[in-house]
Structures are given as structure tokens and as C-alpha cells.
Amino acid sequence: MTLALRDVGKEYGRLRVLDGIDLTVAPGEFVCIVGASGSGKSTLLSLIAGLAPATRGTVTLDGEPVTGPGPERGLVFQSGALFPFLTVAENVAFGLRLLPLPRADRAARVEWYLREVGLLPLAGALPKELSGGQRQRVAIARALACEPSVLLLDEPFGALDVQTKEDMQLFLRQVWLDTGTTVLMVTHDVEEAVLLAQRVIVLGCDPGRVAAEVPVTLPAERPLEIKRTAGFHALRSTVEDLVRANMSTR
Ligand SMILES: Nc1ncnc2c1ncn2[C@@H]1O[C@H](COP(=O)(O)OP(=O)(O)OP(=O)(O)O)[C@@H](O)[C@H]1O
């Protein structure tokens, strides 16, 4: 599905958070949105998720206006937001309750996606028995289980320690390669954006707008060592400079 935003604006009362956002994400793309704190990254994602309405402009999926949340858009937040009293498998199944699937297909999907995220052995565990990284894997499995056309992630690894974060970054890239799902991810971490995305969108502040777009001209194969290459350093510096140049002056 093609995601298209045309002249999108968002205001909260007199606060203009986003203005004139034009953005197209093609099927199968991996796009990251970066920007200084307060540039409106999370707000932008919530408009695409259908959690809040735009004040102006249109958000469409294959030409159909987004009017609310839908199973074709999977959402993952920083906190994972798992149900504490449901097991790992039940948490993944929960996302499927709105889909008209026979019970056997439902169970098969839960198993498939738990295997994909490497958590099948922990299907019966409760969230409190998992590490932070494992919890985020469950949240990703829950979103993927609906087989969304677009996976929307808001700082999904922001609360993890460095090593777990790196593992999860490699994991997400592999999921993207395996499933072909379109991925749109918000992060304040420029290094993460350059490591993962094919294209990085830089939001500027006051109001939030697309300040720049940087194609990530790195090979598709991206082991962590790529972060030590000159090409990676150059791209990271370019994006960091753009974020800084477009910070709020208030
Ligand atoms: N529900 C709301 N009501 C009023 N103002 C809001 C609401 N949500 C966000 N804002 C304001 O919109 C602006 C952008 O917030 P948003 O969370 O989208 O930015 P962000 O780029 O994701 O920031 P961060 O990187 O710090 O998470 C901020 O000034 C924030 O206070």
C-alpha cells in the first residue's frame, strides 16, 4: 500500500505542531523520521495511525483516506504496552481479535510470528518474566500478526540498553527483509535511522515540517560494522547537521 500525506497540518488549540507535510512512502520501503525533540514526530505518526485527526490536508492509504486505526497499520510504541495478565501468546493473539479468522488460523499465525521473533519457547510466559528486548519483540510480533501493510514504530528501542538495542535493530531489519512490510519508524537516534532506513526524513521545528530528505546510499547488507565505515560516518554527520540546523530557536 502507498501511504501519502498531502499538505498535512495539525494544531492543538493555538499551537501549530505540524504544517504542510507532504510525504509518500512506497510499498516495501523502510523510512525513518528524525528531528529534534518537539518537532512533532510522534504527532505525525499518530495521524498516520489514525489515533488523531489532521487539522488540515489528507492522509491516504492507496488513495483511501485514513479516518481511524485499522489492521493494515501495525503500531509499536516505546513501552511495548503489553497486557500484563496475558501470556506472550495471548498478547500476540489479542491483536488478531478484530480479524475475521477461523480459530485454527489464528493459532497458526500466533505461532508463526512468535517463531519469527524467536519467542516461541516463551509463548506461555507473562510479560513480567521477559527482558525489555523480549517485550519489544512481543509487541512487534503482535503488530506483525495482523500482517499489516505498514508497520509504524515510535521510538521502539528508546528504552533499551545499547547491546539489546543493536540486537533489536538487526532483528527489525531482518523482519523487514523477510516480510516485505513497509516500515515507517520515528526515532531521535540518527545512527539508528541511518543503519536501518532506505530514506531518512528530517523534521524541522515550529511548526513541524519536512526540512530535508536523505537517501541512505549504503548497501542492503548492513552488519553493525557498517557503522565504522566512512560512508556511514558521512551520512550520519549529514543527518545530524540537518537536525541541528532545523532545531527550535524558541
Ligand atoms: N495531545 C496534545 N495536546 C497538546 N499538545 C500536544 C499534544 N501532543 C503533542 N503536543 C505538542 O506537540 C508538540 C510536538 O510533540 P511530539 O510529541 O509530536 O514531538 P516529538 O518530535 O515526537 O518529540 P520527542 O522527540 O520529544 O518525543 C509538542 O510541543 C507537544 O507539547
Task: Characterize the structure shown.
The chain is an alpha/beta fold and about 250 residues long. Helices cover about 35% and strands about 25% of the residues. The protein is built from seven helices and ten strands. It has helices spanning about 40-50, 90-95, 105-115, 130-145, 160-180, 190-195, 230-245, and strands at about 5-10, 15-25, 30-35, 55-60, 65, 75, 150-155, 180-185, 200-205, 210-215. Strands 6-7-8-3-9-10 form a six-stranded mixed beta sheet, sandwiched between helices. Strands 2-1-4-5 form a four-stranded antiparallel beta sheet, with helices on one face. β4 and β5 (about 65) form a beta hairpin. α2 runs parallel beside α4 (about 130-145) and α3 packs across α4 (about 130-145). The radius of gyration is 18 Å and the shape is globular. The mean pLDDT is about 90. It binds adenosine-5'-triphosphate (ATP). Adenosine-5'-triphosphate binds near residues 35, 37, 38, 40 and 43.
